[in-house]
Amino acid sequence: MSWEELDYCPSCGMPICDISCYTNENPTETLGEGLPLKRILYVEEWDGYHFDFGLSVVADLKQSEVKDFISKHHRHHAPSVGDKCRFGVMFQDHLIAVAMLGRPVNRHNDDGSTLEVTRLAVNNDLPHEITMNACSKLYSSCCRWAKQNGYKSVITYTLDSERGSSLKASNFVHEHTTKGGSWNCKSRVRKSSKNTGAKKRWRKLL
Q1: How far apart are CA 130 and CA 46, in angstroms?
Q2: CA distance linking residue 94 with residue 90, whole number of Å
Q3: Residues 202, 175 contacting (CB under 8 angstroms)
Q4: If you ran DSSP here, which 8-state letter would residue 41 be given?
Q5: Which of 53, 55, 93, 94 shows the shortest CA–CA distance to 73?
Q6: Residue 141 has pLDDT above 80, yes or no
């Protein structure tokens, strides 16, 4: 994706740190009345200028929409079968990341007071400067929903090779590293994941 960050306003030519034309008196008022403008990006594939007032989290996404996004953008998993709720992160009107929150996959963790972020995916075709805070926002939204609905903790898993920077930023703690393996067995035949190595389990107490 081709993009460029501008240090000036394309309308008035003023430096971005001193832009005054994005107000009620300006035709661009619908871009964010009263909000601080962080930067302006020119993204050719998105048909022009995009005015960054920060990322927003939405909770009214259809499950089918989230699953389609995960199928396209998750690095190593298909979508979860079901969930309790789901969140997305928007950059203006573009969906750039999603998360699914549901019951823990491992029955030993399914104690009635714990939920699991079973899937989180980001559109990594976008510049890191756009998506850099998306994961932290999703983890925080999932934890907030879980706490509001009476749950005591939220867990999630990452590959052993992943650092978990967004999880640490959201106050998750690495509590265990699994030995890995497949969920497929004779008593319950399942499709094997291609990632059967060790995984880190992270938990946040609410």
Answers
A1: 13
A2: 5
A3: yes
A4: E
A5: 94
A6: yes
